[in-house]
Structures
1.
Amino acid sequence: MTKTCLVCNAAIDPFMSFGQMPQANGFLLPDDFQDEYLYDLQIGLCDQCGMVQLTERVEPDRLFHENYAYFSSISTRMEAHFEDFAADVMARYVPKGNPFIVELGSNDGILLRHFSQAGVRHLGIEPSANVAQVAVEKGVNTRCAFFEETVARDIVVEYGQADVVMATNVMCHIPDLDSAVQAIRLVLKPDGVVIFEDPYLGNILEKTAYDQIYDEHVFYFSLTSVQHLFRKHGYELVDVAPQNVHGGSMRYTIAAQGQRAVSQAVTEQLAWEGGEGLTCRETFDAFRRRVEHSRDALVKLLQRLARRRARVVGYGATSKSTTVTNYCGITPDVVEFVSDTTRGKQGKFTPGAHLPVRPYADFSANYPDYALLFAWNHADEIMAKEKEFRDAGGKWIIYVPEVTIL
């Protein structure tokens, strides 16, 4: 069935369906199993503007609410990343005087707290009440709301326009990007910059990281699609920088057309995208075939281990693991439970697949034979921490970029 591009309204056809899928962060109790919300997880490429996107979407208020389960500060790797990010922005883009910084989707304040500690005026806009409260308790000025034009106008009245508008792993969550950019235009000074980072389409394709595809990620950005989006609103892409977080991300810097010189990095990355065919249908057909092969290999491995009566436990009840467990049909018959340190998930069951989520102590007190690493984007940090598991004979199962036992 033909769908319509959310950015340019052109007709698009999905290049892949993952089938019926629950909400990625919809951890639940047994009483909720019967009424679990499902949707068809499909992804398509717009041939006109190059934007890769979901073709059926879950309403934002279903995803971001007072019980949102993700807190950015749980990872020491992300703590260091955001500290470096803040330092870079302050050094390059925050003017002297009385600057003002706005962050969209500021979560628990992991980025803005560095501006707060430096005495820089700031405001975080965060729609999930529970994580917004954590930010406030850390001394981060935060407003609990979805960012849109009315909120933007209120910000300008109360604080004036911003020198920098930032977002990390947020822009890809916003279904109506045109309205979001219009709201950014209202809140940003004419000579200000927009800086955001999100998982990069090039890395997703390169690593066959299909678990990056889930309900919260409406869009999968390339430079080509980001250029097209912002150009409509009088902005241009002036700099990019790859980031080694979330399995491979890209940081984009946007300014009003003609305000700043376009860096060589933009030119070079656009050339790379052209060579890799990031706007070609054939590229995504090949990606689908690799995903199918990865699924089959993981299922075969887990079934073989189950026949041997080996214990397999999932490590990290992540949002992205929902795509893997449901697309691959992973059940408690092959994965005993999933270990996670987030209290709000413990004692519940994973979306769709209904794997029990248990505290980390259940993992460390009785090590399994194999740990299926759902939080693969934190692999270095996790494996360094889990030396005792390896010393006890434990092995890791990895499925990105390919199914492997380590």
2.
Amino acid sequence: MNALQEVEVDMSVEVASMFRLRFGISQTATGDWSLLNLDLFRPLTPVSVRVASGLLPVPQALINGYVTGQRAAYALTPGDSTLEVTGMDATVLMNAEEKVASWPNLPDSAIAAAIFGQYAIVPRTQPGAPQLVEPEGTTTQRGTDIRFLRQLAQRNGFDCYVQPEPLTGIDQGFFQPPAITGLPQAVLNVNMGPETNVTEFRIDYDMLRPTAAIGAGIDVLTKAVQPALAPSSILPPMGLEPALARVLPPPMVRLADTGLMRTGELQARAQGVADESSFAVFAEGNVATDVGLLRPGGFVNIRGLGRLFNGSYYVTTVSHAINREGHTQRFRAMRNAVTMTGADVFVPV
């Protein structure tokens, strides 16, 4: 711990979460190097990062990861040599082996729960109906477990990621739509004088990103046309005006090469495209730990942006940087609507 100089943890719902540990190293009397001579960080060594911050003195788990790399920098100036240890969350184990497996008569959520269970990860899934039922077809996996799960998540418009439960530290596998209802993680204030708790904040509004989706297939047995149409997002809008409803005429994409034949399958895929594309307003900024530890997969309420952009934002990425000077958090978030609803809650919970 005396040698530890900095800890960085990048948490995300879109890609694997990662950590980086930077240590100071020095040459020993025998000509070896400190820490390296102990060989502590062997391939896939488990590493857990917990942080006690703010008013809650109990350490909270940020990541349970596995060592994937080292970088030793040997400087000529004494005291400047460093060792960087990097690693990824449990999805690195789920990406180690390519498989061919069949999952007959099971909904995607049950498949996700079964795969997460193989790695002692507690599944957090949303129930659903089977996509394929024998003898019409069987859901078949060709690839690693995490890539297969992300394919299933994409066709349902779900997020798929692994994150530890804060207090117990037990890894949870999420396979569900974005969690944009309930209570906010924090209330963030921009340009609000002494109440300001966000710096370097910016908003990007990609106005032509939202799109409706349409698709069609042919039923193998009956040869009947199987249509699907998703003219709007079915996710709760995080503002008064849904982003897709503001684009007139609305863009439309046609699904191709989906490999899906039934209306139910195509409808889920089309709806997933519309739901994902509806997140067109992106926020980014730095916050201190006095707002608490932010986590991807929840939402925050932000004010001080004006009527158009005030409101709730779904957090997708949080980068923690911890060193002897303090602890900072850089977050990225998004929303699928604009304009305050009038019912927005800006009271810290």
3.
Amino acid sequence: MEIIDSHHHFWHYDPVTYEWIDDRMAVIQRDFLPEHFKPVLQENRVSGTIAVQADSSVAETHFLLEKAKENEFIKGVVGWIDLRSDTLEQKLDALEHETKLVGFRHIVQGEPDPLFVLDPKFRRGLEMIFERGYRYDLLIYPHQLISALELIRHFPEEPIVIDHIAKPFIAHRYIDGWAIMMREIAKYEHVHCKVSGMITEADWAAWQPADIHPYLDVVTECFSPDRLMYGSDWPVLNVAGNYEQVIDLVLDYVRDWSEEDQGQIMGQTARSFYLSNHKQ
């Protein structure tokens, strides 16, 4: 079975650039680079990855693309670009030659405006990246699922993936409102979902697989395996556990699935979503 990690990050740690990494997260207040990740992947039989932006800068997009050129295991990059820019078309033209650039993401979870994704300039930016064959990662909190649903209705056929199962409040065991919205969004068959970032939404010090299973039950009930993709969220996961715990959480959960369905969630969905239909 091919395993592709659909979601991880790299960075040269800087406390200003990555100010969101506070003192509670001191374990990740350092550099995380391909040479640190490669042995972890090998130990867990992961053959490929998708690197995702963690800073809202074009500089980081270029940084990730350089790492992808230098490391074969990085199959694609989800970068950042200002989707509301008046010069977006020219900026996209400048990236046209980057064959490992497969999509874009904005840190919507950090936006105070709950209607941020419905801004006309933002939606026009999405139209432009979709026209060029890129995918979009939607990073949101549960309270932003309402505007996300409206956005998805506006783009009823475009390739969108919900990061980190929309970050439900697992530590507080809040599930019902999140579940209602996820089921509604899942009705749109072009929308995918990353089974990632879950242990950092749980109690960092005391989480158990049983705490996360109810949330996995919801997304696996409403998204088919060919719309679900495994992601680690390395190195952020280190604040609440280790890579082996994260991948085993998913592997153990799908243990009784058919080989085909296991293959979908663990790798084939990511390959189909990011790589098979991309302009490269």
